[in-house]
Amino acid sequence: MTDKRRAFGRYFDNPDDLFNWLNQAVFGTAVMNALNRAGVTARILEGPVSVAELADAGDIPADLLGRMIDFLAAHEMLELDADGLVRGSSRTAMMLEASGFLTNVEISGRACAQLLPALREGKTPFEKAYGEPVFDYFHSHPDMAAGFGQFMGFMTRRVQRFIFSQHRFQPFETVADIGGSMGDMLLAILGEYPGTRGIVFDRPDVIEIARPKVEASPLAERVELVGGSFFEAVPAADLYILKQILHDWDDEECRRILGSIRAAMKPGARLAVIDHLLSDIPQPDESIGTDIAMMVWDTGRERKQSDFEALFTSAGFRIDRVTPNPNGHSVIEVVPV
Ligand SMILES: C[S@@+](CC[C@H](N)C(=O)[O-])C[C@H]1O[C@@H](n2cnc3c(N)ncnc32)[C@H](O)[C@@H]1O
């Protein structure tokens, strides 16, 4: 069942609602990004603090900061007590936790402005806006790559409880997270499955960004970090994870990634694809939004289960088990035929 209340069409029934909704979303994102980056959010979370002190800490004019604090208080993102002190809440903590995601919204905005001309020119909007395909751009902008990695960690924390409670993996010795970013998913899996070992595989530049965090983990001795391209070759393992990878690429590119995995799989190995599943009938859910995000960012798309079936068949796999998640990423476990 879909929650039709999520459909933004209803805002168009009333021009006041439409104006208010878009304004709050666009400018709210800007305010949250500014305060996260200035260190203001972190300072609020340390304990009650005056606007003047926050203005000094964040190097922001106090009157302008005061208006942004009022805005966030009005939206119940933080609290202003009777003597004007600013107090954080669990929502303020979430605002900081979501900083990678909020940055991503900003990056997407610049690419979205190029949607129509880019599609007419046969480019991705991201490439038209930023001059390079997304992962090459991250290679030349490590700060942005690190922010993107943080966003991926946020997305992983959102879904891992669902995965571990609803989709138990069969016994395995070594799990390889292909395109594993900062290692968040891999570390979560090793924590959940004691006695196993794991590999984070990603582009060499991304692996170097991930290294300090992974090596600082108490599970570090069970982890191997491997740099490379999944279009060429991946390490041997008996459980593979592809989380939010296939949705970045078109079918032909996906077949190359799947081919690398198939060639490396140990006997009896399995592949768990963790991605959104598009509904057969369009619904105003997360997947239909990220489908357009993939159109803006890269050559990928979200897929229906029937699209995945056709893709896997053409790459020499068959679907063994599907655990659908109506509120996020589903798990599609496949085996080679
Ligand atoms: C959308 S992110 C998903 C990250 C992670 N799997 C997750 O769900 O949190 C895509 C990942 O693919 C990686 N990637 C892109 N091209 C790659 C390539 N040719 N070989 C290996 N990894 C690649 C990116 O660096 C990035 O970490």
Automatic annotation (TrEMBL):
Start and end residues of each O-methyltransferase C-terminal domain: 115-318
Keywords attached to this entry: Methyltransferase, S-adenosyl-L-methionine, Transferase
GO molecular function, one term: O-methyltransferase activity
Keyword Methyltransferase among UniProt keywords: yes
Pfam families xrefs: Methyltransf_2
Protein's UniProt keywords contain S-adenosyl-L-methionine: yes
GO biological process terms held by the UniProt record: methylation
Protein name as annotated: O-methyltransferase C-terminal domain-containing protein
